[in-house]
């Protein structure tokens, strides 16, 4: 099961962190871009090749420290077909290094169209009756629940059949997430609570040996109080926590998404790791050429930050 | 403005129809697949080339009859990088035939990530300070509002700056759409009503010369009563109507999404057009070799069906 593999990866590396691979051009050191632009041209292909090179160097620097990476599809789609090629190459490379891959696509649709999305990321595409081929080779996908169960079930089928996982948006980290998610229904429940109840139900058929489900949820670190409530509703759900660092969430805020067993959540960091060499913490120690070393240092710093907060916070639970 | 171009396309062709390009392998005649599998192999590339050929023949058969096409991204993503190439080629070909392209991707995210998605479909990707390149060249994109305004505004900025459009999911055509969308808040309003009020507000800055906005909405034909209410809330929104035909919505059901000016909605048909040659209506008249002629016949039948229902229905309004 996906969730068992994820938990074992977290335990093995003693690190509940997923590194977001959101490779904006401005993050990539000039020496990489200069090289790929020279070789492939000042075009989408040149950008895509720079992304591949940058991601590979980040992965090389961190694969022994974190269980998983989370490429954000938007940052690949914006480079067109070449960008999607870069996404695919990144996933293949991450896989070769033993990393679990959570594709952040927030995909959503209904019926056979949801099946097609699930096929793309979590399934196997049928070419012919005998021949099947994987479109992309990832382990889990973020999905959006606006369309209800019709939009979720096809993904869950692939979680069951192919040992994959999903993370359903429940309470997102952004300021305006409340416009819809915080609305309170006539039963005195908020939308995010109702979604959490669905996530709990949907996840039951894919519960693994540690008591967690391959149907997880996204709950932003920027809403620690809501996280506490949601943690209690979705007892079996692994929570993917965005919003640590750059968006203002602290390690202490993240603790609310964990359970007493020290499991239950995985915290994402994207910019703070990819751009560590530009950050106030690391910029004096590492120059652009040493960007990957800065990323490694930041991953270690974050791991210690989270583990300290967990030691402190879980004792108080 | 996008919406003015869409309305002029609808008026010129006297047809408020958008043809969905959802090219499942089972829809594509054997003679096309045999050819591309022979040339490119029994693999994702072979499928992608079959899709391109199939779509081009459909487009050739219908481009003078409809204003717009709506490729559904899921059916391209499921063929990996090659599938995205097929999406891109399809868009380029449709554009060369003067068609408006609505990419059905239901994209959603926040802040700079939403900007990246918008960039991919509605914007221009910056390669370098001087050089910009389009990732994909489409006119509009469907988007999902679960994350609130932070997830919508970046797309609206491109609607303003680049004369593009979006269609925001409000009430989707599927059975379980009510699980979230029909929930009633303590103000006695349903989620779909509240989303419709947002769509109305969000759309104001991009209102065109016919009084409609480039911020449209998706409201399924399968919910005609809700459509009537939503039509009255979102006075300026163009409504993209899925669910006609295969999903059970009738032309009469679609009329509720139009206004008295005969404008305000565009009805999607995917399977009924792409698979017309297999349908009970057309299978005796057209064989597999003539599949595109069957699609053309179905587009004409649907146009007449919608226009009759509009003549009848709008008189009663």
UniProtKB/TrEMBL annotation, chains A, B:
<dbReference type="InterPro" id="IPR001754">
    <property type="entry name" value="OMPdeCOase_dom"/>
</dbReference>
<dbReference type="GO" id="GO:0006207">
    <property type="term" value="P:'de novo' pyrimidine nucleobase biosynthetic process"/>
</dbReference>
<dbReference type="GO" id="GO:0004590">
    <property type="term" value="F:orotidine-5'-phosphate decarboxylase activity"/>
</dbReference>
<protein>
    <recommendedName>
        <fullName>Orotidine 5'-phosphate decarboxylase</fullName>
        <ecNumber>4.1.1.23</ecNumber>
    </recommendedName>
</protein>
<dbReference type="InterPro" id="IPR011995">
    <property type="entry name" value="OMPdecase_type-2"/>
</dbReference>
<comment type="pathway">
    <text>Pyrimidine metabolism; UMP biosynthesis via de novo pathway; UMP from orotate: step 2/2.</text>
</comment>
<keyword id="KW-0210">Decarboxylase</keyword>
<comment type="similarity">
    <text>Belongs to the OMP decarboxylase family. Type 2 subfamily.</text>
</comment>
<dbReference type="Pfam" id="PF00215">
    <property type="entry name" value="OMPdecase"/>
</dbReference>
<dbReference type="InterPro" id="IPR018089">
    <property type="entry name" value="OMPdecase_AS"/>
</dbReference>
<feature type="domain" description="Orotidine 5'-phosphate decarboxylase">
    <location>
        <begin position="16"/>
        <end position="281"/>
    </location>
</feature>
<keyword id="KW-0456">Lyase</keyword>
<feature type="active site" description="Proton donor">
    <location>
        <position position="106"/>
    </location>
</feature>
<keyword id="KW-0665">Pyrimidine biosynthesis</keyword>
<dbReference type="InterPro" id="IPR013785">
    <property type="entry name" value="Aldolase_TIM"/>
</dbReference>
<dbReference type="InterPro" id="IPR011060">
    <property type="entry name" value="RibuloseP-bd_barrel"/>
</dbReference>
<dbReference type="GO" id="GO:0044205">
    <property type="term" value="P:'de novo' UMP biosynthetic process"/>
</dbReference>
